[in-house]
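User: For documentation purposes, I need each entry recorded in a consistent format: the amino acid sequence on its own, followed directly by the corresponding structure tokens. There are two entries in this batch. Please keep commentary to a minimum and don't merge the entries.

Assistant: Recorded as requested. Entry 1:
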Amino acid sequence: MGGHDVNRRETLTACVAVATTLTGCISTESTGETVTNRGSGTTEGTEPTGETAEATDWPAAFGTAGNTCFSTDSGPTDGTVKWTFSREELQPRAPCMADGTVYAVSTVGEPGSEQMRVFALDVATGDLRWEQTVYDYGPLGRWSSAPTVADGIVYVVTDDSYLDGTGLVALDTADGEILWNLSGAAGAHYGGPVALDGRIHTITEPSDGESALRAFEPDGSLAWENPLAEQALSAYGIAGGANSLAVTDVTGVYGLDMATGETRWEIPSDDFENRIQLPPVVAGNTVFVATGATSMTRERTELDSTYRLYGLDIANGSQRWQTSMSNGDEPAAPAGPLAVADDAVFVVQAPISDGSHELVAYERASGTVRSRQALSFVPNLTSPTFAGGEVYVPAEFGIVTEDGTLAESLELSAAQQTNWGLPVFDGQAAVVTREGITLLQ
């Protein structure tokens, strides 16, 4: 159909996600981590996050507007391939899923003449519903962000910071028709645009204006804008919840009123011991932020560095708690974005000694270490996903079981999958493979 190839196989030889069950994350241990708690005038409470993906949807890069990588639905059980969508020269980003359709952004074509396209696939069969070209790269092809789906619209940011082209594109989910687009480069933040309260939020930098966080109505009209800082923004992420937005940027961490865009609070980058290079997570009334020169940019952490995980009050930015990320006396940097469940924060960490990785669970309310699990075959850049009581972590060659070892010889295209949440829904997972886009069950 349409020249594409949908492959169905009993076993997977091109990719897999990774599952580490929660049973390995419920014991509490005594560690050398330093945990600091500070009163904020409000309490986190025991309420659920309110930022979970719907039971059969994963409509954004990290599953939710809060970037929680958290779903109440179950994930795949044995890694059986339901279908694979492939096409020559297809280079997809991590997909998302909403209302029975898997959406993915990909470059197509030979170097120097790539096109950026959005693909819509039937989740039941892998059949192509539609595809739409949203940008002709020419000789300077660049990756795009992951798509975001809300209220019948697919939003895509073209990461064309060095090109005078489209910054934000809105497409009809029914047929891929381009509803509107905004000219101007988009900020290169992780995860893509954030949809909340009927608006879409992203960093844009028009050729005739300054870079700013901007909120747009579904028709593309501007609702509000906030430049946040005097210098150009290079936001690492945007997250929303509790009538607020949180932004992590090279200049610091910001909290904004979602309705007006007004800055409620800000924490300058100088107030942190190390750089912020990850998107924030908003769950309940807390913003979770990890600092450090992560293994997204360096293979090993630095001996004299301090890497910390913070819980901040979303209302005023005050610190609820902080904890150092380490393995005994050795610092350990986060290997990628966080996952936040009702009672725990999950981080894949990379200790300095041998470049190994471990999955660490922190108490959501206090930041104390709940458990840690060694992981095998995990690349330098990886992010956990929590779904149906299990933690899924992409690995290089297959499924990692709860004891941290390789369970099944199934290859993974880690470089294209691991910096995003793993889309989990209805007992399935959509992953990027060397062959294209694969649905596991």
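Entry 2:
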Amino acid sequence: CRVLNILLALLSRFLFAVHGVLTVWRVVEVTRDPSYWLLLMGVALLGVEMTITIKYTHNAEWKWFSPMVFLYLSSVIPSIWFLELNLLQSNLPINTSNSDPQLFSQIPLTMGLAKLDPENWVEALEQTMLIVLVLGRWLMPKGDMSRDQLSQLLMVYVGLGADILDIFDTFKEPQVKTKQAVILVGLSLFSWALMQFPLVLTQTSRPTLQDGSQSESPQAGLAGWNISCCSSEVWSLLLTVGLQDGPFLIYRLYLMIRENVLNQLMIFFTCKNILIVLLEVYRICVVHFENRPEGGNQSCDPSHSQSEWIDGQDIGVRLSLSLSLSLSLSLYSQLSIKIKQKQLKSPESNIT
């Protein structure tokens, strides 16, 4: 088993290293500046990280944090930034009088040497990055995770990747593709959301009693709830809201309201972010209510009274979520009608 873990550790790091080298090579090829090879420092440290991890961990992987994924992202994220900024410069009107010369001096020009279109290169690297993150997490040793926890984590990664990739599609919109501030905010949100991947928040454990054994009864679970502020599940939900769904929702609402970016995909992902935030808040409430300690004014059957109290709170939360969901669906239908009306009016204006 130890030998298998070492082989899996080597294979996963080799996969990360290959994609990291390819991404940095593309930056050097586009900019014609060899100094960008310094971005490979993170990938170069993967060998040192693997040696330390195998030596000081029992299962060849850390429990809560993956330094391997962090080092890989430290090389890939800056490379994606340089490639996207290079595309931004190519989309800017160079011959106009309001162009900023300082911006062009800071962002290098594309040399146009690649056989593949520069935009297709960036898209391919961004998409394969998320595929590599999922495959690398699958190949690397499980550590203390069970197979069920690993499968859940991989499915979460796939869902996160689809939402993150849609941010790059917004950069192609005519209202956005030449606006530096909007693209920089989008890239910042992209980098912020990727910080979920080094974290492993599927680790859960039952409350530990004073004699070292793990409790099985609900009463012992309530006692353990008082010891820690939040369970790992609650922390995982809070991080998902704070690192991705919340910021992405605000960003997409800004694009729809202020920049007038209205399309079916934008509306879908906005409603999806609203729904996920509501469901995550609902899940946090459920976990909190189920682990809430019993109050002093309880009936003779405390478990029955607590169950009724939880059911009452649960009904209220469900009603509010249903109302919010209906409002988001109504918003989706209204915006869809508005888009169709614009599409019908545009041919008429061209004819006139």
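Summary note for entry 2:
The chain is about 70% helix and 0% strand.
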